[in-house]
Specification:
This protein starts with a helix and ends with a helix. Helices cover 88% and strands 0% of the residues. The chain is mostly helical and 112 residues long.
Length: 112
């Protein structure tokens, strides 16, 4: 039962995260939107399962894990979209910052 809940919750958060981050990055980058969407999908396929496992085991590590995800996705954006690390980290901060704030707000609202 718990595993099914984690899987269904993970899938919903994964789809929302990829959708929001793709939208943000496509709006900002404005070049090769399908390629940007593919990169966001691939980076999240790498980072989100690992982050979910760690946060499920150690919930108090949420912000530390978000920091690691930001660093990894920033490097990934820089390498795969051929931009500076600084720009990759800024874009990752924008996209991940938005999804992190939305997640924290959702948890705050639903924990009532």
């Amino acid at each position: 039962m718990l595993i099914n809940l984690i899987h269904s919750t993970w899938l919903v958060t994964f789809v929302l995260t990829v959708t929001i981050e793709t939208g943000v990055l496509v709006l900002v980058i404005r070049e090769r939107p399908w390629f940007v969407a593919l990169i966001v999908l691939l980076l999240n396929l790498f980072t989100q399962p690992l982050a979910t496992v760690v946060v499920t085991i150690w919930p108090t590590w949420f912000y530390l894990i978000e920091l690691v995800v930001w660093l990894v996705e920033g490097i990934g954006l820089a390498l795969l979209l051929e931009m500076s690390y600084r720009k990759g980290w800024l874009l990752a901060l924008l996209a991940n910052g938005l999804t992190t704030v939305l997640a924290v707000l959702w948890l705050w609202i639903t924990s009532g």
